[in-house]
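Retro notes, item 3 of 5
We never archived the inputs for the zinc ion complex last cycle. Fixing that now. Sequence and ligand:
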Amino acid sequence: MGSRAVFLDRDKTIVLPKGGERYIYRVEDFHIPDNFVEALKQLVDHDFLLFVITNQGRIARGHLTENDVHELHECLDNILKESGVHISEFEYCPHNPRGTLYPYNIVCECRKPKTGMIDSIRGSYEIETSDSWMIGDSYIDMLAGKKAGLRTVQVLTGSETYSDYADFVERDLVKAVKRILEER
Ligand SMILES: [Zn+2]
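Structure as it came back at the time:
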């Protein structure tokens, strides 16, 4: 019997842009509301493994570096750890075929809606797919989740409209977690 897991998109799902910023590139660009941290803690308390999977294709356009991504993940990890939230893996895709920066400007297998990041995590952890979920703000998260056999919750903290691939649509991460715990 494998573990249940929640795969989490990062930007505009578990972290929000600070102030009027549109994108989250570096540590100073993001914040995480206290009730989002508490929601993640609830998942941990219900024995879900947590994985962050994020497209960072703007690396391929030169807007940020892999080092920026690592720094942000370390900072986020430290904030979450203080509240007893353990993220098992932070996975990111730095690619974008329309980018300009070699070697990132390629067609890869990890950029969502492809399932490469989920597949690689599954190679390292025994995960019970039927009892696992994807939470994200974008249709590409919902599509990736569905292709991987997960149930999906779309949150409306991004700018996107409802996706056909979402099993549920909720206002934010807090409501999404409530939904998952109710559905169990
Ligand atoms: Zn990739």
